[in-house]
Write a structure and sequence with these properties.
alpha+beta; Heat Shock Protein 90; 3 domains; 6-stranded antiparallel β-sheet; 18 strands; elongated
């Protein structure tokens, strides 16, 4: 096959890659320019970092209470029946929720206003709530839900509700509904304010500091004030709790404010930190996008190449089908018109028809084998057999064609019988046929093909040699790929399907052997099949 310029598909792929790469460079340049402007706006940049930090801490608080409360308070509706409410205790025993001072359920019966039961972790039971500030906070929080129950109002999608009228007893409620979406009760918890200020907030601050201030968390002071303005938490115990920027805390403790100020870093320094972080991130994203473009280009190039190879395969197979069919038609026409009056002539025409039929059959078998191999359905029937007989039968099928084309076939085989090998005779015969077929095709001006059969070191070797155009060393591994054909001018006029050698390798490897090639351009090629004498099981096997 002669070398040709890049096909249109590949040129289109390169054009698309260059366009995408230039667009990526432009985006990166615009990003850098934007970051430069951001650095100049130092105060705004510094505030953006502080704001992002506050949002991250607030989100940590939200995620700590929200999902955990949902899991803990998702009590089945059946537990709210008068005789089954005690089962809620067993449900709560399996939950491990930090930050909750009390767990409770409130049953809305038809005859009572609403029964409040607290969970006692020491006894593992539900107990009636005594008169206390906690009970009063729960009762007030549940009043709207009791009214919904009395008015038989359906609640389609219950959600967690936070009631903070009593700052000392903040309540999270989960309305429980039955199959008709009617409220049957409420599961809830009372928050532990000491846990919030002494454990949750410090952990959230320590978790978020490295992400926004990689040079050191001591650069900022974080503080929390309650609804009355009293300082509840600070990372600078000796300070006054002053904050440059504040945020309300979401979901729970909403009357508290979270504040932050820079201790050592000026806004300009914070801007430079942010600039470096964003620039590094942009470069990393650009590198990943460039890598993705390269991988996409390579994949596109492979697909374009495979499409071109398949197109050439269809063209070559069409030609390969026409050649034997034309010969069969010509000789059949001669017979029909009585041009073979002599028995010898009729036999000669018959031999030509038989040879071309075998050639056609082998091409069809190659296509069918490829389909079976690619779908994983190729099966081999291994049994002890004589490799010499398989070789002799395969070469006999070439006798008429070699004689007609003026080839001299030289066979070198041992005088002593070879040991039996476990083989699939049909598959091995096709592999040998493909090697001899290639030797004939690529012999060039030479008209000699040599076949050698040997037995050594527990292996039977079949070598097929020609003195033709040869194969460049750079192509010798790839010639066993399907559809691949050597891309040199020496094979420009040689047609082929590109399947033969790939099928040879698959068949030989299925026999537990290997196929080798030795070749030099202009000197010819030697293909050798090596099959172990033993080691392949009897019976059918998937290839």
């Amino acid at each position: 096959m002669s070398k040709r310029g890049d096909p249109p598909g590949r040129r289109a792929a390169w054009t698309g890659f260059l366009a995408a790469f230039l667009a990526l460079v432009l985006v990166l340049a615009l990003q850098v320019a934007s970051l430069v402007r951001l650095e100049r706006a130092s105060l705004l940049a510094g505030n953006a970092v502080l704001s992002g930090f506050l949002d991250a801490v607030a989100t940590e608080v939200l995620y700590t209470y929200g999902p955990a409360a949902e899991r803990t308070l998702d009590v089945p509706a059946s537990y709210f029946a008068r005789d089954d409410v005690g089962r809620a205790a067993a449900y709560f025993r399996r939950k491990d929720l930090e930050g909750a001072k009390r767990l409770f359920v409130v049953r809305f019966g038809d005859a009572d206003w609403g029964t409040v039961l607290f969970y006692d972790p020491e006894t593992g039971t539900m107990t009636l709530a005594p008169a206390s500030d906690e009970t009063r906070a729960v009762t007030v929080a549940c009043t709207p839900w009791k009214l919904l129950r009395e008015k038989a109002i359906a609640l389609d999608t219950p959600r967690l509700v936070v009631e903070e009228r009593d700052p000392a007893n903040r309540v999270i409620l989960n309305p429980i509904t039955d199959a008709t979406s009617r409220i049957v009760g409420v599961a809830g918890l009372i928050l532990d304010g000491d846990y919030f200020t002494s454990r949750l907030l410090p952990n959230a601050v320590r978790s978020c500091l490295p992400r926004y201030f990689p040079d050191g968390g001591d650069a900022v002071v974080v503080s929390v004030r309650d609804g009355s303005g009293a300082l509840r938490f600070t990372t600078d115990p000796g300070g006054d709790g002053r904050a440059d920027l504040t945020r309300p805390i979401p979901f729970v403790f909403t009357d508290h404010s979270l504040g932050v100020r820079s201790r050592t870093l000026t806004p300009e320094k914070l801007a430079r930190v942010n600039f470096g972080f964003n620039l590094t991130l942009s470069v990393l994203v650009a590198a990943l996008m460039a890598g993705g473009l390269v991988l996409a280009l390579r994949a596109t190039a492979r697909e374009v190449k495979l499409a071109r190879m398949k197109s050439e395969f269809v063209s070559n197979v069409t030609h390969e089908l026409k050649t034997p069919l034309a010969s069969i038609r010509v000789f059949a026409e001669h017979l029909r018109r009585g041009r073979a009056a002599a028995p010898e002539k009729a036999r000669e025409y018959g031999e030509h028809i038989e040879a071309e039929s075998l050639r056609l059959t082998n091409l069809v078998n190659n296509v069918l084998d490829l389909s079976s191999i690619e779908s994983g359905r190729k099966a081999y029937a291994f049994a002890p057999g004589d490799v010499g007989k398989v070789l002799a039968a395969t070469l006999a099928a070439f006798r008429v064609r070699l004689l007609h084309e003026g080839f001299d076939l030289e066979l070198d085989e041992p005088e002593e019988p070879l040991p039996a090998a476990r083989i699939d005779p049909d598959a091995l015969g096709r592999a040998i046929h493909n090697l001899v077929e290639n030797a004939v095709r690529y012999s060039g001006d030479s008209r000699w093909v040599g076949v050698r059969l040997t037995h050594r070191d527990g292996e039977i070797a079949i070598s097929v040699e020609d003195r033709g155009i040869g194969i460049p060393e750079s192509e010798q591994e790839r010639i066993f790929e399907r559809f691949h054909r050597v891309s040199t001018g020496l094979v420009h006029d040689v047609r082929g399907s590109g399947l033969g050698l790939s099928i040879v390798r698959h068949v030989v490897e299925a026999h537990g052997g290997r196929v080798e090639v030795s070749s030099r351009p202009g000197r010819g090629s030697v293909f050798t099949i090596r099959i172990p004498v033993a080691g392949v099981p009897d019976g059918p096997a998937k290839g």
